[in-house]
Fold these 2 entries.
Entry 1:
Amino acid sequence: MPRTQRRNPSTPFIVFMVMIVCLRMIAMSETVSEFNKILPETIDGWKKAGPPGLYTPETLSTYIDGGAELYLSYNFKTALSLKYKDSAENEIAVDIFDMGTSYDAFGVFAHSRETIETGFGQGSEYAAGLLTFWKDRYYVSILAYPETAAKKDVVFKLGRVIAGAIQVEGPLPPILGLLPAENLLPESVHYFHHYIWLNSFYFVSNENVLNIGSDTPAALAKYRQEGWTFFLLLVRYPDAVRAEAAAVQFRQKVLGGAAEGMRALKEGRWTGLQCHGDLVSAVFNAPDTETVRAILAKIKE
Amino acid sequence: MKSRRPISRRQFIKSASAAALFTPLLFSGQERTASLGSGKSRVILVRDPNVLDENGLPRQAVVQEMLDTGLKALTGQPDPQSAWKTLIKPADIVGIKNNRWPYLRTTAEVENAIKKRIMEVGVKETNISVDDLGVLQNPIFQKATALINARPMRSHHWSGVGSLIKNYIMFIPEPISIHPDSCADLASIWDLPVVKGKTRLNVLVMFTPQFHSFGPHSFNPKYVWKYYGLLLGFDPVAVDSTGLRIIEAIRREYFGDDRPLNPPAKHIAIADTKYHLGTADPEKIELVKIGYDTGIFV
């Protein structure tokens, strides 16, 4: 007698539920609003309050007036905002930004981070009631002011839910891989493609002296060597012609046409620039010309 | 937050009186007379550590005293009532432009202190309004003959700092139109008929300035500094420039190295060099410091 397989009567239901969950995950990756379905209605006495807000590049400034331009400069796509409230009307604000790419999610996260933490997603920071992290193309902020131990616990639980719901990790901007590792302060690594952020560590110019734009990914980082702090900027252009044009402009406007592409600027600290193919590299605030040459020579082209 | 040595009330009043005594009567309160005869813009910095209570909230009485002290020093008048009479007439219609960003407001205490003195001049309460986002729809602001500009200074993700110059951004229908190049041309707003020549006093609230922005809402309590100060002046650029120096000094103190604002607050310098709204050059600013001097930074 052939052996018949006995099937658990609940198997179709389980399969169905697994499919629903999978579909939800897939859908969530399509639209940021799906996070609202993933996040619990209640958590440790806190309840979702009101309908979530959904923002686009056109409407983001209505939500974070004055702060929207930072996100727009990193090609922000959409954001979900929702609130949790407790019985005393205290509030926890959850904001999830879909930045379109992991490059820009990292960029906007790294813009204001001060430390290297890895508790959530691909990089996180917690300070006085505010948790921020990035994972894949999402930048997440969970804010609970004023901070209490209980609120911090809820913030972390919500952070784990969101980070867990993002199924994959995203790659870092390739240009970061060119930064020499020696003496690099990793928490200082910035990525951007808007000239406004050129002055992040060191004031270079009020003008866009390197023609940085949406098609020129840039990395900026701080180095510390023997007590000296200096900065390295890398900008990748679509082609060598544009790179050389930017380098020429920089040499004229910042270096005053100095020979060898180096000049002592503020307080005798040296600024230098080189252009190799489509890559322009600049060093700021170096103690001497040897330091400029040494760091430029270590760029991993 | 670093601990601060408190100053006694007697010391505070003594230094304030001295400043008022030696201040010549040179102002009418109009923007056009913002400079001293020497060509310098006068900026008054008043500090009192008692301005914040144990919860970090402003004390009304101390705020009033700081405002009065500062205005006496600014105008050279012996008492706050006569000082305000050099700025405001009873027939004036007065808009007090505040800033109500939820994490760091102008504060009701500052608004109340200003409003109280304006009413003492003889301005009807119905002819005074305090507003921020609604100024273009507010009938008092629409027909205002005088403006008082009062806001806290804070770091800002796009303009470097939220400043007195920037506080008038709500006087244009589409504030986002002034955003290109990190709000470089904010001072152009001050030339619009709705505000031009109307600003009688600028008050930069420095009780707890925010010196670094973090996260989408830009605010984190970790990055506010108990400075206990009020800056006053007729020249908004000079007051902003002084506030900016304080913010930059706090950043150096906190971060332990020279950390420029990101982006730089270039709209303040451009307000001077391009729009000639006032002076941003510390060499052309006469800074009068009154009160608590520990951790003053300027």
Note: Chain A has a mean pLDDT of 90.
Entry 2:
Amino acid sequence: MDTALLIEKFSLVVIVFLISLGVAAYSTYFERKLAAWIQDRIGPDRAGPFGLLQPIADGVKMFMKEDFIPKNSDKWLFIIGPGISMFTALITSTIIPWGPPIEIFGRQIELQIADFNIGILFIFGVVSIGVYGIMIGGWASNNKYSLFGAIRASSQMISYELAMGISLITIILLTGSLSLTDIVKSQHGMNWNIFYQPVCFLIFFICSLAETNRAPFDLAECESELVGGYHTEYSSMKLGLFLFAEYVSMFISSALMAILFFGGYNFPGMDYFDGNTLAILGVLAFFTKTFLFIFVFMWIRWTIPRFRFDQLMHLGWKTLIPAAIINMLITAIVIAFHKGWF
Amino acid sequence: MESFTNRKKVVSDKPMTFIEKLYLPAIFSGMMITMKHILTRKKTIKYPEEIRVFAPVYRGQHVLKRDEEGRENCTACGLCAVACPAEAITMVADERKRGEENLYREEKYASTYEINMLRCIFCGLCEEACPKEAIFLTDRIVPTEFERANFIYGKDKLVESMEDRIDISLRQNTGKRGAI
Amino acid sequence: MILELISIILGGMTIGSALMVILSKHPIRSVLYLVITFFFISGHFILMNAQFIAIVNIIVYAGAIMVLFLFVLMLLNLNKVDEKKTNHPISFTAVIAGGALLLVILAALKDGITFTNTIVKSDVGLVENLGTLLFSKYVVPFEISSILFISAMVGAVLLAKREKQHID
């Protein structure tokens, strides 16, 4: 085993972990700020300059709260639930290519923890497991509202996974690879997938809103009907993990959208740079796109009211899946024509 | 019926067109509205640093005025207590002794004068009732307390001190009755 | 050497969690152990260099089918009070039937099973090879199974669809 490679990968894992958590922490701050701005308020501004220390204050508050486990709950599953949520939210970051290879101490370092040849399928796998955290947590609480939240979340996620998967087949068809690295490399410069597949992007975007349980698809934690949904019975840092997992998965799905449709770390005019300059600029471009998507996520949350459950199912099964299938068929036919198969 | 304003909107239940069924234009216009709100200047006043200017007729904590020579205006006539709809004001009248002429303007004065700030509704009727321009409501806010008893303000809190006179020149009832 | 050790440990854990599926009293715990079993099986696939099958196993079984199982079990709300007492004759016949099935399977597979301790490395499990294999050599069974799925789907839709009510 190559020791240098081991160190390199280990430090990359730590850095990615910290970045994911840091971005998630500051998206809670930014979400509150944005919500305030949209509602003509100014938001948190007391902790530190511009309230920048607010996430730390929130974290400390979460830790200090009483950690309560309901008497009739399934204790182990109750504890495991938020852990699974957080784990599945974080694990996707392993396959994200954060930037072009960078050169440190004469070593070419790929800014990606693991390059699977089945990257996209890995995402689906993780997304499909993501339901378990909510389901287990919601069921183990032994509370009707929690159970309702869990059931809503699972049926919603199963429904939207389908449309998401079918919509992504077009991207796989365009690239001819399941690896995220290849998908990013095929979008060199300004040759982004969004220009070829706007419909696919729209479907994927709606589905990732649903998969991250964000408004307008936050029926699982719907405050006005289900008290708090699956995390009604949770308190202290277990609740914190659930809430935090939502922000982490929002960050990761924004990153995925940037990779799949907006060229990842590619930016127009990237051929004029090389080496570490390119790497740093690439990472910057990637994060700019990601943050833009996080902004759009929040912007949507504070604009659009929540769906009703039948509307949600109607949108998922009767609109998005047919649209995704038609889009896939048209793309396949066009590609077949292009390759001269007819 | 004839409408008096132009705010009336005719509601129709005609079937939606294809574009409307997509909901995307509506969603987009909604997002533009929120974007406009993001970019507007916020009207928030950050309280401890910035203090909002009160209206001149604001009715806050009461003050019992003294005249220019530092004598209390109040003669304990009781009109304020009678006028008070919340029955927050109580007082005990007393006769001015010899040698107290520099303390009280007239022969009769209030030896105790109490306003229960929990009962007071800050209507300002005491101010209107007062014939001697002795009591005024000011722009000061009654501070919060933990004990109920602390909300009964006696003369120690109500009568202004000569070093720190309270400006009531903007009040509406000032100088109306031409008192001395 | 390390790989063999890993595969042995993984195998033991797979069998252990599979046993827990049967032994655990609570149906929901059983389902969760089954999910864990699927993960271990995917681990085996990865050791055999078949990432595609591994991940599809997780997506389809752990991610979709087991979620539906959980869904139904959570709605059923099985408590210990509702549990029926096990009937001895029925369990006896169940054991006989299961044993017979095991015998049949063993008889069918006895030529196929070779007890080797080495991990077979092949590239069959990779996406491209699997795709070509499915669409060339095994194209007929593949298509037939897809027809089977469609017919199952149509059947489910027909069952679920109520007759239209006529309102006068």
Note: The first helix of chain A runs from residue 3 to 38.
